[in-house]
């Protein structure tokens, strides 16, 4: 099966969210699976379990309720977000296995950067000691996934201090630049994508830059 890869550059979250839902709800058996690479302007997003919260912003940063799994997180420039638009009917794995493959690909990519990372039982994502470096939240509709993962590369981490990232009280966050000083988000896009595709058993991708 073939993935179409789209680099969206830096894009407003709500616009991307609507495009992602439109794509998922209108796709059919002939639609290629896609992976979208994007940075977002500053925004907090709420997962499905926290959508009833009535607040609309934190620290003058907008807060948007979504239909992904998980709780609250932050997106901003310098963080790579990867959206996975996958028809699971075509794949040899279901959503729990997909999550495990995503986590393993990130851990192996970080290991290649000489950064030791790990999973935590009952807490999706990737961690370096007790700090979160990669958040993960998916939604499945008609056996098709959307939403995905975010990995902190070289960003302002202070907005995370106003929340419990992914609902974990006292959880701190970290980023790749703290361990590898010459890293850039474009490097992470290219290198992490290769690991992710290899774990998803893909060898061919259609590249479509639409930044």
What does this 3D model show about the protein?
- The chain has 211 residues and is an alpha/beta fold.
- The chain has one domain: BirA Bifunctional Protein, domain 2, CATH 3.30.930.
- 22% of the residues lie in helices and 36% in strands.
- It contains 3 helices and 13 strands.
- The strands form 2 sheets. Strands 1, 2, 7, 8, 9, 10, 11, 12 and 13 form a 9-stranded mixed beta sheet that branches.
- The radius of gyration is 16 Å and the shape is globular.
- The two termini are 25 Å apart.
What is the H level of CATH, i.e. the homologous superfamily?
Answer: Bira Bifunctional Protein, Domain 2
Order of helices and strands: EHEEEEEEHEEEEEHE
* Secondary structure: helix percent: 10-25%
Strands, count: 13
Output the CATH topology: BirA Bifunctional Protein, domain 2
CATH class: Alpha Beta
What is the count of DSSP helices, taking H or I runs of 4+ residues?
Answer: 3
Named at the architecture level, the CATH assignment is 2-Layer Sandwich
Largest sheet geometry: 9 strands, mixed
Shape: globular
Number of domains: 1
Termini Cα gap: 25 Å
Write the layout of secondary structure elements.
Elements: E1 3-11, H1 13-26, E2 33-40, E3 43-46, E4 57-58, E5 61-65, E6 72-75, E7 79-85, H2 95-112, E8 118-120, E9 123-128, E10 131-141, E11 144-152, E12 172-173, H3 185-199, E13 205-209
Parallel strand pairs: 1-2, 1-13, 3-5, 10-12
Antiparallel strand pairs: 2-7, 3-6, 4-5, 7-11, 8-9, 9-10, 10-11
Helix pairs in contact: 2-3
